[in-house]
Amino acid sequence: MDVTRRGWDPRAREAGTSDLLRATAEQAIAYRASLGERRVGSRPGLTADELRARLGGPLPDGGEDPATLIERLVADVDDGLVTMGSPRYFGFVIGGSLPAALATDWLVATWDQNVGLFLSTPAASIVEEAAAAWLVDLFGLPVETSVGFTTGATMANFTALAAARHAVLRAAGWDVEEDGLIGAPPVHVVVGERVHASMVIALRLIGFGRRGAGRVAVNGEGAMRAADLRRILAALPPGPTIVAAQAGEVNTGAFDPLDEIADAVRERPGAWLHVDGAFGLWAAASPSLRHLIRGVERADSWGTDAHKWLNVPYDAGMVFVRDAAAHRAAMGVAAAYLPPAPGAERDPFEYVPEMSRRGRGFVVYAALRSLGRDGIQALVESNCAVARRMADRLARSPRAEIVNEVVLNQVLVRFANSDETTREVIRRVQDDGTAWAGGTTWNGRLAMRISVSNWATTPDDGDRAVDAILSILDGIDQGAGAR
Ligand SMILES: *Cc1c(COP(=O)(O)O)cnc(C)c1O
Asked: Fewer CB under 10 Å: which end of the chain, C or N?
């Protein structure tokens, strides 16, 4: 093919790039500035086919001018975006973006570093190392803990389980990295009945599956009953064992009793304790919340998210493993073309599933540095205070009932003690656009699920959301409660 005839001219292509980036930055800045006032949900009634008509179709033969393309892309997706960065977005558990984190994320895309190896980009390795040390300190984990920067808590949990699998099988005389799982001694896996769905994915990927896992009974808030864990462990035949506990149940925010769980696990020699603390681990940042994770440092591995409570743009999470050798044994690999890092320097790829990888560590680093210890504490505590305030205001309505203990940033509220009314309130709130909250089924009953995880959320945002919710609830009452 004659590439010249096809107009492949990199210099001409690059020519307008400065203007393109400036114009794009203006688009991004305008979006960012509108976060507080933009409607929170996508446009009610917008259909997938409408979006398909705008965005789909065959791949064009001739390329488009980047500036035109971006302008049209922005226009075409606008009403199909959900303003997840809104201070009144309370869906799932989703943080916004701190200014320093967003700006650094722009640079990360621009620097375009493949951060797998120390040698390929020493700055990225050292930035990860610095952020890792801050996080280990902040969470109060053992100083020898090694850290990997993942896409999120799912991959953090997966990585931790891989390290656990290595360690418990090695202790049983089996080299899982060399010989795989077929023919290996059975590994007993124990989780809580309210284990997060992503942990099920991690168990599946790691080759343990879901059915075989022992399930520990939980209390009404979804926290493991330590006595039941003891019962299950006592009934297991001896052998490799992994227990996965949870700090922060995704609906209620409840914490498994980690100290008691660690006591129980320690009675079984060689057993591994993992803690999924996707958002709950951040309770460590607050002296008034720290009691919720008492004993957390006694575990062997931990997973958490940065795109939830640390408020970095998607995506980022971190895995922590006390036994750095087990961590590296599970994730690292040698290959002739991969030059080992000089001296004791750290190759970031040895701690995560991916080899080539985006420089997420820069963004986490910037978020931590821009907040400082006090800022992280203030962020966590102010979100919890808004959650508390919203729960208190909602509870004053005779037709609303808070169905969880609000110990952290999560509120579950049910309306008119009716699944139907609750479903209708959630639907109308999502259409209304003042705020956004989703639904869940908790102990067999439907509830609205409110998560306060955005650094920018103020008490006033909480009040505006509650006002909207209560006025929608009123409307449903007057509209003849039975329908
Ligand atoms: C969100 C969450 C996860 C999964 O995290 P991702 O960032 O979606 O991968 C795991 N566990 C808990 C408790 C969570 O809240």
From this structure: N
Q: What is the pLDDT of residues 332-367, one digit of tens each?
A: 988 778 877 888 899 999 999 999 999 999 999 999
Q: Is the confidence at residue 212, as pLDDT, over 50?
A: yes
For the CA of 247, the closest atom of ligand 1 is 13
Q: State the average pLDDT over residues 42-58.
A: 97
Beta bridge partners of 106: none
The reply to whether ligand 1 has any atom less than 6 angstroms from the CB of 309 is: no
Higher-confidence residue: 465 or 342? 465
Q: 455 CB contacts (<8 Å, ≥6 apart)?
A: 95, 96, 98, 311, 379, 383
Atom 5 of ligand 1: nearest residue by CA position: 153
Cα radius of gyration (the chain): 24
- Structure-token match 């005389």, residue found: 173
With the most atoms of ligand 1 within 8 angstroms of its CB, the residue from 93, 151, 154, 155 to mutate is 154
What spacing in Å lies between the alpha carbon of 239 and ligand 1's midpoint? 29
Helix or strand holding residue 244 (H, E) = strand 241-246
- How far apart CA 17 and CA 106 sit, in angstroms, is 15
Element (H, E) at 377: helix 360-395
